[in-house]
Amino acid sequence: MTIKTGIVGAAGFAGIELVRLLGEHPSFEVGVVTSDSLAGTPVSDLYPALDGHTDLVFEKHGVDALEGCDAVFLAVPHTAAMSQVPALLEAGISVFDLSADYRLKDAAVYKRWYATEHTSPELLEKAAFGLPELFASELARAAAEREAGAAALVACAGCYPTATSLAAYPAIHAGLVDGTVIVDAVSGVTGAGKKATERTHFCFANESIEAYGVGTHRHTPEIEQILGLEGKVVFTPHLAPLNRGILSTVYLPLSAEHAGETSLEAIRDLYTEFYAEDAFVRVLPLGTMPKTGSVAGSNACHIGLALSAAGDMLIAVGAIDNLCKGAAGQAVQCANIVFGLPETTGLTAPALPV
Ligand SMILES: NC(=O)C1=CN([C@@H]2O[C@H](COP(=O)(O)OP(=O)(O)OC[C@H]3O[C@@H](n4cnc5c(N)ncnc54)[C@H](OP(=O)(O)O)[C@@H]3O)[C@@H](O)[C@H]2O)C=CC1
Ligand SMILES: CC(=O)N[C@@H](CCC(=O)OP(=O)(O)O)C(=O)O
């Protein structure tokens, strides 16, 4: 099967990761890559690492450029995505949106956190949430829609929500947790996109680490929606001098029934069983904790577990590559599912060795 594919926003960090991954994919054939500012430029001129890997040339954005595609990946900022999705769906093209535009199910919540009115709220219900390990049934529905001849829409999960939710969900799902969940997460600078700002400029971001969006970050409602914990998540992101990676440390208060009663071994067994069928999630042996270097360049999520000294809190740590499992890799995983392929297709490369 050849799936004709376009990547919108392909010159950005997530977009070029899609070019890299899909260049090795046996079924998705990328024929169109768009960038307004770089139209006419060969991809390998901008990213010499891809020389010999692709001879694609950036084209101007526009639905016309994507005509004939079966699948389009949108690697553009939020709000830019929702201005393009309805027309793509109408043209019969399945859309894998890496932005936040279709993740939140409630348009009023979107407006509150993104400070803008949603322009196609009628599609929020249709959008399948793109976090395969936790939303398999939504993706199966999208696959069935596509199989029946309609275009599918997948709202790929955000990077921090992916690392955080994969680390937290099994304990919450098993009813071990009661109370406010606190998340301290650290991201590499590619998480902020390609354009340098004062915050991400080398001289400011290097040799420095800072918390940002404290109490106000837009991933808070997304994490709450995934975990079913409305108003019960305190999320603090940090920017660290790394290129790639997210490390999310999640503090989960154990319920009175489980605090001091349920062993860490039993909790690890529960996690291992929960993710038994999930090729990309690895629950580490007790006594070991994940690190971003071990997942960089791969679609893996590593999870480490510990109990607080008082035994009343589970500490779950998740590590992913923000550009891979947190963005492009996860989008390809979702697209594999929607197009009826094994979800690991084209995603089996291990992490960078060092
Ligand atoms: N970076 C990350 O770790 C993650 C990113 N995401 C999401 O993926 C999307 C892309 O992020 P990222 O690659 O980091 O961002 P970048 O800023 O690196 O790239 C975004 C690209 O989109 C293009 N673009 C900007 N505005 C528009 C528009 N109105 N219409 C079409 N294209 C536009 C840009 O310009 P041009 O057309 O000139 O090339 C650029 O190439 C965002 O929604 C982001 O939130 C999700 C998870 C993680
Ligand atoms: C370091 C940094 O700035 N990270 C970005 C999040 C990454 C991202 O692209 O957000 P989505 O996953 O929602 O698309 C931020 O805090 O806004």
- Which structural class fits the helix and strand makeup? alpha/beta
Rg computed from alpha carbons, rounded to a whole number of angstroms? 20 Å
**CATH topology grouping of the largest domain:** Rossmann fold
The CATH architecture of the largest domain would be 3-Layer(aba) Sandwich
Q: How many structural domains in the coordinates? A: 2
Give a structural overview.
By secondary structure, the chain is of the alpha/beta class. The protein has 2 domains: 3-156 and 325-338, 3-Layer(aba) Sandwich (Rossmann fold); 159-322, Dihydrodipicolinate Reductase, domain 2. It contains 10 helices and 14 strands. The chain has helices spanning 13-22, 43-46, 85-90, 107-114, 136-147, 159-173, 202-205, 219-227, 264-274, 324-338; strands at residues 3-8, 28-34, 58-59, 71-74, 94-97, 128-130, 153-156, 181-187, 210-211, 233-239, 246-253, 281-283, 301-307, 313-320. The strands form 2 sheets. A 7-stranded parallel beta sheet has the order 3-2-1-4-5-7-6. A 7-stranded mixed beta sheet has the order 9-10-8-11-14-13-12. α3 links the parallel β4 and β5 (94-97). α1 (13-22) crosses α10 and α6 (159-173) runs parallel beside α8 (219-227). The longest helix is centred in the middle third of the chain and has 15 residues, at 159-173. It is globular, with a radius of gyration of 20 Å. The model has no long low-confidence stretch (mean pLDDT 97). It binds NADPH dihydro-nicotinamide-adenine-dinucleotide phosphate (NDP) and N-acetyl-L-glutamyl 5-phosphate. N-acetyl-L-glutamyl 5-phosphate (X2W) is lined by residues 99-100, 158-159, 187, 191-192, 237, 239.
